Amino acid sequence: MPIDAANPVAPVFPRHVGMDQVPAHVPPELIRQSGLTFGPDFLANPHDFMAALHEKQPPIYYDVSPMGNMWHLIKHEDALFGLRHPDVFSNEGATPFPRDPDDYFYFIPIEIDPPHHRKYRNIVDPVFSPQGVLKLEGQIRQRANDLIDAIDAKVAARETCEYTEDYGRPLPVSVFLDIMGLPQDMRDEFVDWAVKLLHSNDRAIMAEQMGKITAYLKSAIEDKKANPDDGVVSCRRLQP
After folding, report:
1. Measured distance CA(138)–CA(205) in Å, rounded
2. What are the tens digits of pLDDT across the range 229-240?
3. Long-range pairs of 78-87 with CB within 8 A, sequence gap ≥ 24
4. pLDDT value at residue 103
5. What tens digit of pLDDT does each residue of 51-79 get?
6. What family is reported (predicted)?
7. Rg (CA), the chain
8. pTM exceeding 0.85
9. Domains of the chain, first to last
10. What pLDDT was estimated at residue 70?
11. How many helices (H) and strands (E) does the chain have?
């Protein structure tokens, strides 16, 4: 379903995945399987892997991946051209997360091209501006202190603690829930969904987690329509 003037955010699917779905217009000499998207070499040492791309791959090539095929632009000037020409290198469907074609949605604003990209950026930009983040500082510090207190309690009880599980993962999720205006009692579930979604290259597992997240957010949106607040999900602060 292509984008058109009447329906500017119509979905484009299915995403090309694998060698048998390389579009006919892609020159065969530019097709690669570099392993950049969740490949074992990339996951083991991403910095060396990215440096080696400049030596082993052409400056522009088409990468075939189980997470989704895509063009890779290695040189700065080419990447800059791609960023400035969404008519050639569109952001639509750019993320590798699987979605239901019968209930398709975009990751906003990163999968929306200009000029529509800007209206969605206008919603979230104030939250992440220097002034917006400064307003959140006290709340973020409190969330961090609460997690540290929980770790201290574990240590006092001679229990073991693990930084990633007890602090690294729950802190950003707690802050995300505050910003979105969602309840903190969903934190552990969101952490579980995010870990399974972001740390898996199994599209079935990813699709399952996307389904859970989507179902919850749809329910939350309906609740915010009846009970608006200042969270991003509600967007009451943008209403006249």
Report:
1. 36
2. 888 888 654 443
3. 86/113, 86/114, 87/113
4. 66
5. 888 888 899 988 887 767 888 898 999 99
6. Belongs to the cytochrome P450 family.
7. 21
8. no
9. 19-121 (no CATH), 129-238 (1.10.630.10)
10. 82
11. 9, 3
